[in-house]
Fold:
Amino acid sequence: MTRIASSFAIAALLSVGTAQAETKVFDLNIKDHHFQPEAVTIPAGEKVKLMVHNQDATPEEFESYELNREKIIPGNSKAVIFVGPLEPGEYPFFGEFNQATAQGRVIAE
Structure:
């Protein structure tokens, strides 16, 4: 690889790392089969990372038809769910295994 090609490769890797480092993280907890907080406000037009912490001993499935996301989170563990960029609005989600109590929404503004 030439010195110029090598420099371009390094610059490309650094820009990817910078883009990933700029992704905003929003925490969401599952406790007693409820999402806490019930509403997460994120910036519209940006891709963000939801860090979902399942504090219950049982698994839960984060599901949202509007966000087109579905992910099982084992008990006492965490998972990352990327969403966006979203238009301004509200996007409901629920816990598939505890639908009566595990309800929430992402608010993009």
Notes: Strands lie at 24-31, 34-36, 39-42, 48-54, 60-64, 69-73, 77-83, 89-95, 103-108. Helices lie at 3-21. The chain has a mean pLDDT of 89. The chain has one helix and nine strands.
